[in-house]
Design brief:
Elements (H helix, E strand, L loop, with lengths): L5 E8 L4 E6 L1 H13 L16 H10 L15 E5 L5 E10 L2 E7 L3 H10 L18 H16 L11 H14 L10 H10 L28 E10 L8 E10 L1
Antiparallel strand pairs: 1-2, 1-5, 3-4, 4-5, 6-7
Subcellular location: Endomembrane system
Family: Belongs to the adaptor complexes medium subunit family.
Main location: membrane
Length: about 260
Amino acid sequence: MRACSLRAVWILGDDGSVLISRRFPTVERRWHRSFSANSNASGLPAACVGLPCDRILSQLYLKHTPVEKACYSALGRHVLCLSLTTETIVWPLVVLSKGALRVLVLPLVQPSQLLAQLNQDANNAGDLTSLSLAVAELTCVTQAVDVAEAILGLCTVTGGSATLSTGDCEKVREYIAGAMPFGTPLDTSAATTLAVRSKGFGTGDVATREQQPAWKPHLFQGRTKLHFVVREELQCWFHQELTPVAFSLAGCLDCR
């Protein structure tokens, strides 16, 4: 099973000011490829849109009116669906609060998962703003909640201030860089991630024959081993009198 990934993370003040914004272009490209391949799927809304800029996202969040339903789970109340237009949405947006701070996390959802949610909520006559039913069944949503809780744990709230200190901003950026490279969370424990980043691995660790867990590398007690494989592909068109020279370079980096 492919690991859960995040499209973007924001920290907002209660006045809508954007304190921290982090987008993951690698995950966003996967999102567009996935929805483009399923663009003809019956019942799929025009949700394949680029992420709105920070200013527009802040405005949409401030204008959002919570939909209260008795059948919502405790987790479902923290998942929003923001409508850009009548047919385009930003969903599922996980929102957790601490004082005057709001952490917004947008996980990657596959088209099949979105269609399943629409079919479950078919009684709402196509109302795209009420897609938070049964979201606890989506692994990406529960992991986004873990990430949001970890980020809130790094933030110090004093009174009603909707600002972050320089130290808190640095901690959050270090956590995002270390815990979710390229948008895929490896370990949502902020304490473990920051400790490894500041202290590194112990020199007395004894190498073992066990494979390093790909999903929790920071908890592996053996000697760290990384294997890189770089693959490049060059396509070119030349030596044609009537055709201009053209070339493209593509590649990928595999790490384990």
